[in-house]
Amino acid sequence: xxxxxxLASRQHRARARMEELGVDALLLSVGADLPYLTGYxxxxxxxxxxxxxxxxxxxxxxxxxLEAPRVTPxxxxxxxxxWGETEDPVAIVAGLLGRHGxxxxxxxxxxxxxxxxxxxxxxxxxxxxxxxxxxxxRVVKDAAEVEALRAAAHAVDAVATEMRSRPFxxxxxxxxxxxxxxxxxxxGHQRANFAIVGSGPNGASPHHDAGSRVIGDGDVVVxxxxxxxxGYCSDITRMFVVGEPAPEVxxxxxxxxxxxxxxxxxxxxxxxxxxVDGVARDAITAGGYGERFxxxxxxxxxxxxxxxxxxxxxxxxPLEPGHAFSIEPGIYLPGRFGMxxxxxxxxxxxxxxxxxxxxxxxxxxx
Length: 366
Ligand code: ZN
Ligand code: ZN
Ligand code: ZN
Prior knowledge:
- By secondary structure, the chain is α+β, with helices and mostly antiparallel strands.
- It is 33% helix and 23% strand.
- It has nine helices and 18 strands.
- It has helices at residues 3-21, 33-38, 89-97, 112-121, 131-138, 143-163, 173-186, 247-266, 273-286; strands at 25-28, 50-54, 60-64, 79-83, 102-106, 125-129, 191-199, 220-229, 232-233, 236-242, 298-300, 307-311, 324-327, 330-333, 337-340, 343-346, 353-354, 363-365.
- A six-stranded mixed beta sheet has the order 4-3-2-1-5-6.
- A hairpin with a 6-residue loop joins strand 11 (298-300) and strand 12 (307-311).
- Helix 8 (247-266) runs antiparallel to helix 9.
- Residues 224, 226, 235, 237, 328, 342 line the site of one zinc ion.
């Protein structure tokens, strides 16, 4: 199916969901729901871009005139209503809604100033988060989306593999981080989202910002990086050590590799999300480091780097075919070092489909 057909089918399913929830119209602005349904990503601007998708009737993309050339028309999916600099886009949206109120699902990341202005312009409108409509659709990836995620994963696999023969010692974290970004772009990413480089004690902070610390001999280095390729996100973590690793480093890493592998194998269709987290956590706890695994095991991934489903205690929802998520247990020893190992996995009827294939052993670098 081509993009236009896929968009039409998504819109059809969104409308069915609106029917189920009693939602009269869907309003989408910045955020990933808009490209999911239109193929167009709104610029996060002070000028309003908004798709007005009524449950019955034509969808209209209200877009600033100067942004309109960036919209790829999708006849039969939505019409374009370009607004000029002196027009009031909120009035246009209100006009399309019909000013009669009703139940409106508005994009979760819509700027509050626009949500409030629409609320003012359409008294009696009740607003609900659009994730209630679009979330259940987006969480199940179709075959083309899985292939887009796979291509993004292969690109960061290539970067991770190249880094195994690159020097780390004597360089700052920021310098290595920049190299990760450059290589992601070289490998076809349109944008890098993040490139965490946590060396030595800095690695014990899971989201450490790569900084001016100079990587030294014996340092354990966490490299967690990802970006967007053809609209879909990548996210991978691999571990590096400068020179011969200390025995404790080898032991902790062996425990982590085992925990991650067990969690990947446990990520089968029908398994509750929290059970996958439990498998990783039990393995690390049995090894004596349960207290040092301080975050959930994984997050969903797709158009956004972090989205449903979350692999965390309390999420009893079962994995379904087409769910895509990270499996990234970690062990963090404050003041010393941290370790994490991350792959993207898709739940499939014939078992977990691990998208990343870069070597998972501790890379010994210079
Ligand atoms: Zn994270
Ligand atoms: Zn990551
Ligand atoms: Zn991640």
